[in-house]
Design goal:
The structure is a single chain. The chain has helices spanning 2-15, 27-38, 50-64, 67-71, 85-92, 94-112. With 127 residues, the chain is mainly alpha-helical. It folds into two domains: 1-73, no CATH class; 76-127, no CATH class. The longest helix is centred in the last third of the chain and has 19 residues, at 94-112. The protein is flat, with a radius of gyration of 22 Å.
Length: 127
Amino acid sequence: MSATRYRRFLKLCEEWPRDETKKGRDLGTFLRQRVASGFREGENTQISDPEKCDQMYESLARINGNVYRQRFPRVRDTSFTGVAVEECRLLLSDVTETSFIKSLWKTLMERFSSKSPEDVPEKAPEK
């Protein structure tokens, strides 16, 4: 029975979309890591609580299948702040995160450094 559960989770991982704008920190990547750690021995893994395992699978499958999105359609595709979906994606992307961190670092250096900002050499961006 454990083999069946393992195969179901693998199929779910294959179907779960990856967000390429958030490499390594999107929900699909997290799910894959959790399945790998939960089924360390693959099909031979002994499940301590099969009911809970099945319940987790069913919950994730409903989310992946957009069950709740279809059941409770949104009037507008915005958040409570009024920010649209595409703007949220852009704000949460790796590109924005990197530029935000650089901007924050520069601001902190300017505030707390005794040197003027022109005296502080700027690092080349890391890849």
